[in-house]
Every structure is written in structure tokens, then in C-alpha cells.
Amino acid sequence: MTPQIAIFARWPEPGKAKTRLIPALGAQGAAQLYAKLLELTVREARESGLPFHLRVTGDDPARFREWLGDDLDVRDQGGGDLGEKLARVPTPGIMIGSDCPGLTAALLREAGSVLPNRDAAIGPADDGGYWLLGLREPCPELFTDIAWSTPEVYPETLRRLEARGISPHLLPELTDIDTGDDLAAWPELLD
């Protein structure tokens, strides 16, 4: 089976989207930057040729379709913490956020191409998290009791995969845009 990409997305409402960017950009600026990042993510997912859907929060799925394309498969994320939401993604699946400007269709295709032969693919983020996690089969223990948004997410995920005898395919390290400092390498995002 071809893995499907699940893009986790939030409605770009000022004051609720990319709140750690508000000190640098203001509430409106942070929301506008996030909207640009989500549009980029959807574009790269389309270009990858892999099936994908959006898992959304913050507004009705219909509003995301009106904005990003009537053809999109848009689903509500449902309740729970991030781990519970990630654990619900069907496998084989590739989970990504929508705040990684270095994401490319080629990287998505690479993750998709290895999953038929590997149990997992992971793309580390330079903040200690990951920008992509691909799983061939369900692995719910990867998502329980994780200190999300900390530098321990990636190393702890690797430890848990190793404990299951899984050696994931490693993708390049990329930057998630979470804080004003993260923008230094991406000045074109502020145009």
C-alpha cells in the first residue's frame, strides 16, 4: 500500500496560530506567516504525487477546502493531546506538521518510497523534535507520555523505535519555524 501523508494544520487565527512567533511578529504577522507555511506544505504534498489529507483544528474543515482547494480531503483532528492525534493516523502513513519551509516534494517521496521496506522514516528537526514521522504499521507507544515541544522528542522517539527493534530511515535535519530566532535562516518568508 502507498503511504498517505497526514498534514496537521491549524486555522491561521491571530492569537492562536504560531503563538511563540507573536513576540517577533505580532499576532497578525504570526498568523500570516503560518498561512504561508501551510500553503507551501500543501503545494509540496501535491507535487509529491503521494495521497494526502489535512487533519485540522481551529475551524470547520469546509473553510480549509475553500481556502486551499475544493479537492482536498480535510478531516478534523479530534480531541486529545498531540500524541493521541498522531496515534490516530492510519498506517502506512507519513505525519508532518505545516511549519517546515525546507519541506520538499522530493523528501516526501523519499519517505514514501522507503516505507514498503522499512518500518519507519523520521526527519529530525534542529530543535530536538521531528518534522516528519512515517510508519508502516501502528506504533502507538511512540506517542504516549512524550514531552511535546521539547528537545527530547526526537531522541526519545529514536529510543522507543530502537526498543522495538526498528532502525528508521533518516531524512535530513530541517528547521521548524516556531520562534523569531528560527526565522533568521528564512528571510524570504517575511516578504
Question: Care to describe what's here?
Answer:
There is one protein chain. With 191 residues, this protein is α/β, with parallel strands linked by helices. It has a single domain (4-190), classed as Alpha-Beta Complex (Spore Coat Polysaccharide Biosynthesis Protein SpsA, Chain A). The protein is 32% helix and 17% strand. Strands 3-2-1-4-6-5-7 form a 7-stranded mixed beta sheet, with helices on both faces. Strand 2, helix 2 (61-68) and strand 3 (74-76) form a beta-alpha-beta unit. The chain is globular, with a radius of gyration of 16 Å. The N and C termini lie far apart (40 Å).
The gross shape turns out to be globular
Would you identify the CATH H-level superfamily?
Spore Coat Polysaccharide Biosynthesis Protein SpsA, Chain A
Return the average pLDDT rounded to an integer.
95
Radius of gyration: 16 Å
Which bin fits the share of residues in helices? 25-40%
Q: Given the structure, what is the number of helices?
A: 5
- Could you please say which CATH topology applies here? Spore Coat Polysaccharide Biosynthesis Protein SpsA, Chain A
Q: What's the level 1 CATH class?
A: Alpha Beta
The main sheet orders its strands as 3-2-1-4-6-5-7
Number of domains: 1
Indicate the low-confidence ranges by residue numbers.
Answer: none
Q: For the record, give the distance between the C-alpha atoms at the N and C termini, rounded to a whole number.
A: 40 Å
Features:
191 residues; Spore Coat Polysaccharide Biosynthesis Protein SpsA, Chain A; 5 helices
Give the helices and strands, then pairings.
Blueprint: E1 4-10, H1 22-48, E2 52-57, H2 61-68, E3 74-76, H3 82-87, E4 93-96, H4 105-114, E5 120-124, E6 130-135, H5 153-163, E7 169-170
Parallel strand pairs: 1-2, 1-4, 2-3, 5-7
Antiparallel strand pairs: 4-6, 5-6
Helix pairs in contact: 1-4
